[in-house]
Design goal:
Helices cover 72% and strands 0% of the residues of chain B. Chain B has 148 residues and is mostly helical. Chain B contains five helices and no strands. Chain B has a single domain (26-135), classed as Up-down Bundle (3 helical TM bundles of succinate and fumarate reductases), CATH 1.20.1300. Chain C is α+β, with helices and mostly antiparallel strands. Chain C folds into two domains: 2-101, Ubiquitin-like (UB roll), CATH 3.10.20.30; 104-231, Fumarate Reductase Iron-sulfur Protein, Chain B, domain 2. Helices cover 32% and strands 15% of the residues of chain C. In chain C, the strands form two sheets. Chain C has a five-stranded mixed sheet with strand order 2-1-5-3-4, with helices on one face. Chain C starts with a strand and ends with a helix. Chain A binds chain B through residues 30, 33-34, 36-37, 40-41, 44-45, 47-48, 50-59, 61, 73, 76-77, 80-81, 84, 87-88, 91, 94, 121, 124-125, 127-128, 135, and chain B through 36, 39-40, 42-43, 46-47, 50, 54-55, 58-59, 61, 64-67, 69, 86, 89-90, 93-94, 96-97, 100, 121, 125, 128-129, 131-132, 135-136, 141-148.
């Protein structure tokens, strides 16, 4: 068996059904939703530290002030924006089943608007860690 | 056991099969509406929260710290806002997780265990979050804590 | 043109696991994938097992996973499939042998939708039950179903949760729910309003992309859901 054959057989095992954009959109909705829920549980604990006074709270927040966390927060923002837009698409089709005719176009619109709106948001959020952001 | 599953297993036509009560009548329908209505509210609440905390704060150069929270929760509007956000986001997210578990984990002990743990954790976190948002009072919170 | 046909084969008496077998075949661009399967079965290896009856896209027997998507072997042409064609049995249902799958569970779910006209009343003129063209139009799309199982076995929710009644059963429930002559409307809605019924649809649209009859399956599911909401069913 050549390495190419081995690679092909691996691909056979992984991709048994061709992925369409709509299926990818569903998978993305799920993944972003689970991601946001996990963050939410951490965020509630983090915020509850505020009842322990300024020192505890400010120290806790300090743990989150670094580049990896900031990148995670940008990812969180992207997950929320995507989950919101795709959720609106699903709700629209639920209440007007006729819209399912345009499901491909609606899916492309959701993906495109997520990417476009994330460009300025990511640039603003990365500012404190970017070369142009030191004030 | 859902009613449909009882019918597949009986091998009879549903009009002849024994009529069974559906599992949790009305629950899935209620949750279906809840997910969509809370989803619409969260588009505004959650995205608004993220925009304030990560974008507007950045643009105006305010630091997010204890003082920020004190002044913010001094205004009842933000307390109500955050309370709604907490309750809707947590239930929306946990119900989404319940749906994912239902889609991926077959009926049986593991599914029951996962759902019960999910429910228990949710109740704890919901109570914690509510206590913090409703009960927070900067005057009574200690000035020094274990990290000083 | 020469094509390379890869078939996922499995003989329960000899194999522990399914495996791929590759056949180099001479084919015309206008040949159907079914013709290639016949070529293998008739001239190369008579043990190749698959279902087909009419071979003209009407009976729905030869739905299989061709080039990564559920299609009818008798409708998919070599010129559209390309030179490398892979054929697998439908996913999410037990494989009996090669491309032959066990459809018992699929039929049990189909039966759960009560796919027959229920009406014990005597028609007004004693002969026929009349229906306006507008009423007929309501279920025109879903009446085209040929029960090939391409939609149900393309559904990611069905793959991971076989208790889900599946798109095909809901399509057939829709066909009678929206038939003005039927009297079991409520009963069918009650059946489909189940945690394993319409509430498990996640609008993934794999069913729509797979349906060889071009039925808008997701729309049918959402219309049944809407009917359930309006009827105030659980």
């Amino acid at each position: 068996m050549t390495s190419l054959d081995r690679l092909l057989s691996l691909q056979d095992r992984l991709v048994r059904y061709r992925i369409s954009w709509a299926q990818l959109a569903w998978f993305g909705h799920r993944a972003s939703g689970i991601g946001v829920v996990l963050y939410l549980f951490v965020h509630i604990v983090e915020t509850s530290m505020v009842t322990l006074g300024p020192n505890v709270y400010n120290t806790t927040l300090g743990l989150f002030h670094n580049l990896p966390v900031r990148l995670g927060e940008i990812l969180l923002m992207a997950a929320l924006v995507y989950h919101s837009l795709n959720g609106l698409r699903v709700i629209a089709m639920d209440f007007w089943p006729r819209l399912t005719i345009y499901y491909r176009g609606l899916t492309y619109a959701v993906v495109t608007s997520t990417v476009v709106s994330m460009i300025p948001l990511a640039l603003i959020m990365i500012t404190p860690y970017a070369p142009w952001g030191h004030t | 056991m859902t009613r449909l599953r009882t019918i597949y297993l009986s091998g009879k036509n549903p009009s002849r099969a024994a009529r069974v009560r559906p599992e949790n009548p009305g629950f899935e329908r209620f949750m279906w509406y809840f997910m969509r209505i809370s989803g619409l509210a969260l588009v505004i609440l959650a995205l608004g929260h993220m925009l304030i905390m990560h974008v507007l704060v950045q643009l105006t150069g305010q630091p997010v710290d204890f003082g920020f929270v004190t002044s913010r929760w001094g205004n009842p509007f933000w307390r109500v806002y955050d309370f709604l956000l907490l309750v809707l986001a947590l239930i929306h997210g946990v119900n989404g997780t319940r749906i994912v578990i239902g889609d991926f984990v077959g009926r049986g002990g593991l599914r029951a265990l996962l759902l019960v743990s999910l429910g228990a954790v949710t109740v704890l976190w919901l109570i914690l979050g509510m206590i913090v948002i409703i009960g927070f009072n900067p005057a009574t919170s200690p000035a020094v804590g274990p990290f000083t | 043109m020469e094509v390379q046909l890869r078939i996922r084969r499995y003989n329960p008496e000899l194999d522990d696991e399914p495996h791929w077998e590759v056949y180099a075949l001479e084919a015309e661009p206008s040949d159907r994938v079914l013709d290639l399967l016949h070529q293998v079965k008739w001239y190369r290896d008579g043990t190749l097992t698959f279902r087909r009856s009419c071979a003209h896209g009407v009976c729905g027997s030869d739905a299989m996973l061709i080039n990564g998507r559920n299609r009818l072997a008798c409708e998919y042409l070599v010129k559209d499939a390309g030179r490398k064609i892979s054929v697998e049995p439908l996913r999410g249902v037990p494989v009996v042998k090669d491309l032959l799958v066990d459809m018992e569970d699929f039929w049990a779910k189909y039966r759960a939708a009560m796919p027959y006209l229920v009406n014990d009343e005597i028609p007004e003129d004693g002969k026929e039950r009349r229906q306006s063209p507008a009423d007929r139009e309501l279920y025109e799309d879903t009446s085209r179903c040929i029960l090939c199982a391409a939609c149900t076995t393309a559904c990611p929710v069905f793959w991971t949760n076989p208790d889900y009644v599946g798109p095909a059963a809901i399509v057939n429930a829709h066909r009678f729910i929206f038939d003005s002559r039927d009297t079991a409307h409520e009963e069918r809605l009650e059946l489909m309003a189940d945690a394993d019924g319409v509430w498990r649809c996640r609008t993934v649209f794999n069913c729509v992309e797979a349906c060889p009859r071009g039925i808008n399956v997701t729309r049918a599911i959402l219309e049944v859901t809407q009917e359930i909401k309006q009827a105030g069913r659980a």
